[in-house]
Amino acid sequence: MQLIPAIDLMGGKIVRLTKGQVETAKTYEKQFGTPVEAAKRWHDEGAGKLHIIDLDAAFGIGNNHAVIAEVARNVALPIQVGGGIRNYEIAQKLFETGITQVILGALAFSDPSAIKKIQQKFGKESVIVALDNKDGQVMVEGWRTKTAMTVDDALDKFTALGVNRFLITSIAQDGMLSGPDLQTLSSAVLYPNAKIIAAGGIGSIGDLAALKDIGVEGAVIGKALYEGRFTLKEAIEKIGV
């Protein structure tokens, strides 16, 4: 199971939210430095990939594309980026900065044809579809808009369209450090053509062990690292890369 440290950006700084609510934003600049410094730290601790979410873009209040480009220039790791990728042109601009994958939420649901267009240009592995969910329903646009689909509905739809990688985040658990949504994830990993990346609620190395046991491909770790629950190096030594 791949352990993927998260860098969530707002106003050019690393922040963490609780349940996706802007008013809960907490910055970690004092402890972890700039996004580039944090990315280098994760690289040095053994990360094989970085997970960057542009919260300003997700909420429609600007973007952090210049910061993302700076991270890509300075850290030799694959980078997956999500948040506010509302059309093909934004995706293309991000790929041109040197990232390797885009995480699509609203765009995947509003214009599924964009997925194929991105895959044709940047490769089949270039698209991850985000299934951020609350009370069983998938949410988009910064977790403010409910879609008509459940996680299972979306897995059916997008695997049929040729997507094989999904980021599943439990909104209710995100930032709570109280454990991941193992029930939803256990069901999702049963889809034969779906590789699942888990996010939301991870608070301990034990949580990571539980995710590895159910068979997810990767786990995105955010607040637990920034709050010092464990280090990435410790987690990799005990769980895997």
Q: Count structural domains.
A: 1
In order across it, which strands form the biggest sheet? Answer: 1-4-5-6-7-10-11-12
The first-level CATH class is given as Alpha Beta
Mean pLDDT: 96
Largest sheet entry: 8 strands, parallel, barrel
3D shape: globular
- So what's the oligomer here? single chain
- Tell me the helix content: 25-40%
What Rg do the Cα atoms give?
16 Å
Kindly state the number of beta strands.
12
SSE pattern, N- to C-terminal = EEEHHEHHEHEHHEEEHEHEHEHH
What name is given to the CATH topology? TIM Barrel
- From the N-terminal CA to the C-terminal CA, the straight-line distance is 6 Å
Uncertain ranges:
none
Q: How many DSSP helices?
A: 12
CATH superfamily: Aldolase class I
Relative strand content: 25-35%
Helix/strand structural class: alpha/beta
CATH architecture: Alpha-Beta Barrel
